[in-house]
Amino acid sequence: MTGTQKNANNYSSIFLHKWDAGGKDYNSRDASGTNPPLSFPTADWLRAEVDLAESGEAQSTRARRAAEWLRSARSWRSARRPGFGGGWRAQPMGSRGPAPGGATPIVCFFFLPPLLSLGSHGDHCLLLPSVQSPPTFGFLLDIDGVLVRGHKVIPAAVEAFRKLVNSQGQLRVPVVFVTNAGNILQHHKAQELSSLLGFKVDPNQVILSHSPMKLFSQFHARRMLVSGQGPLVENARALGFQNVVTVDELRTAFPVLDMVDLERRPKTTPLLRSDFPAIEGVLLLGEPVRWETNLQLIMDILLSNGNPGTGLATAPYPHLPVLACNMDLLWMAEAKMPRFGHGTFLLCLETIYRKVTGKELRYEGLMGKPSILTYLYAEDLIRQQAERRGWAAPIQKLYAVGDNPMSDVYGANMFHQYLQKSKHERTEDPGAGGLGKQQPSATQSCTSILVCTGVYSPSGPESLEPPQGREEPPFHGHRDFNFSPELMEASHIVNDMNEAVQLVFCKEGWAS
Ligand SMILES: [Mg+2]
Does the keyword Signal apply (predicted)? Predict the structure, then answer.
């Protein structure tokens, strides 16, 4: 018995489906079961056969064919020619189902060493070169904990973008960066990402937590009190708000309001202002620096119907409109433990309002992940990006990569549910009037991918495993989102961003 025959007892079959727009049948096998695939021997056997074939001493048609495929694959991988006809999609071992869209899968037998070893939820699959036909999928990428930690880029993210960007420095698929950060200008965030990731990020690819406020045009002409830090006024104006007042300006106009810090209390009793135009709404754009000042003055505005110099016997309810973004209770920077996020500030404000008035603080709009508003906004930017690039194929699948189960995973899963529910007719009101103006969507799914480079750690406090003695992990989500534990379960868990891209390319049959 030859070595080849011995190894033949160790057969393993790899089924590669060809997605060929022209439907050209290069092989004799199909997936109907009437023409069952040949089992293919081990790698050693194949390599031996291929060596024979390449040296012109082929012993079998099967080996010659394998050698042709191998040469073709090698040549494609080295050249990465964009116009290579047809494409190869690797299916998980044993998958023999028909190709989506009615394409006839052609089964061939061919060995390649496993290229991917994915996370605990990842499928193991093999990847063959794929034609770079227009993408039908796009990425929604979180930033902190996925691409960067503090001001440092995560090396796996740089590696991932080597796969995502072509030799001309252009993205091969539509990508938007969806962060719950908000205390920065959109174009500055784009510049920051460009220098960290090594390719040019367009400001239109950056979605800050407050970006969907552009859709709330009914409030853009109102006089709005804005809370947060950083370039607050510039951000509010960029969102469309034409008449904004900062908390500092309000404090200066009414110095007796801010009394917590003894050092900042007025030394004399100032005259009350009567010429200060009423505030007509509140924008909460991010965590402020002096929480006690902002909590006090926002409460004053809500309780006085925008006239803190007058005071009211009874607080109006409903109160003035409040738009808020970034519900993250915690976020991850360089410190080993998570930091307070804007969600913690909102929790304080809601608790104080309820304690003082006996009623619930209400939001006209609550955005940033996991709000569906943010995902609808992101989906629209992905569609626009694909149009600008001239990619005719509609974007049907979104992959959302994040490090926070409560915002990234919860949001992506909730959006997926929304897409499923509204597949035939999107009648659900997502809460923002302006969204009705968006183009109809072709998106069918949103897949959540959780990485372990940020808030989530398989063994840390954000672990999805219930802690000992408790049935469920604590709910860090916002009050207005019902806790559905299943929505915190990621479709896939991988180590880092690079593995996330490998996973998606594998699922989509793309070469990395
Ligand atoms: Mg994050």
Answer: yes
